[in-house]
Amino acid sequence: MDCCVATLLCLGTALYLLVQVIRFIFADADLTLLWLVAFGKRPESTLRGKVVWITGASSGIGEELAYQLASLGARLIISAPRVGALQKVKNRCLELSSLKEGDILVLPLDLLERDTHAAKTGVAIQHFGNIDILINNGGRSQRSLFQDTNLEVIQALMDINYLGTVSVTKHVLPHMMQRGTGALVAVSSVVGLAGAPLVTGYSASKHAQRGFFNSLRTELADYPGITISTVCPGPVQSAIVQNALTEELGQPVTVAGDQSHKMATSRCVRLMLVGIANQVKEMWIGQQPFLLMSYLWQYTPTWAWSVTGMLGKRRVENFKAGLDADSSYFTKPKTS
């Protein structure tokens, strides 16, 4: 009898582990976040009526955030350098929701112009009376080998992605501390967890950003009502590659490549909103093998170094062959 029970327990355990392995193979986010998708708080009820400030809202993840938050009934402050693009996003938000004209504030903002951030924050607070959530999404990526890249490019990436984000946060945080509530969200990257070729400056800026917010979270222990969430997405369908910096400032990417193989921006944003609604401190969002790499870097870094070395070598080969570094990531470049 005892032998039968033990056998059943072993079979049950093996079946459970098999199910979890299969789930992980098809997962597109960390297991905590996927659990909350099924059983956590819904963004529809949690985020409705909130005042959300989104930087980098004119395209990509920021644009999709604006659309989904508008459809949920959140009031928005949308920022980016290009006013015309922001106005188009606002018009689309109004079409997708029951929001009124005054529920969406177009607030042009350049992350490089840090001396304007205090005044911009004041305009946002004056318009709505408060800011419930700041989503630091604005930034630029990179596609270049370090040995070919001017230091001005590395400086620009740090100024935009890291110091620009810190600057906006610096001016919004006192408002949240005074109210005792709020959420600071930083859109980092999977290369904010690990390293990858062709993005040395970008990766450095995202590592710095993640380290900053992890440290800031510990400083706010006396403010339990303020949540800090870091989002680490893998490749997502957006214009981030087309807008990436290269070897020299002002030099555009020559081959952006097909983006259709990447995660849909709408799915990435939905997962982000679930995490924000449930006050998740860090979210890993990405299709395989990028999700697997996040787990390897977190729990088995020695293995991660080995896998990253192999995949990184292939990525550099593709880049040198004039192929898109992302869409051809696992494709051996053709030789004539």
TrEMBL record:
Pfam families per record: adh_short
Protein name per its UniProtKB record: Dehydrogenase/reductase (SDR family) member 7
Family to which this protein belongs: Belongs to the short-chain dehydrogenases/reductases (SDR) family.
InterPro entries: NAD(P)-bd_dom_sf (IPR036291), SDR_fam (IPR002347), SDR_family_member_7 (IPR053011)
Origin species: Paramormyrops kingsleyae
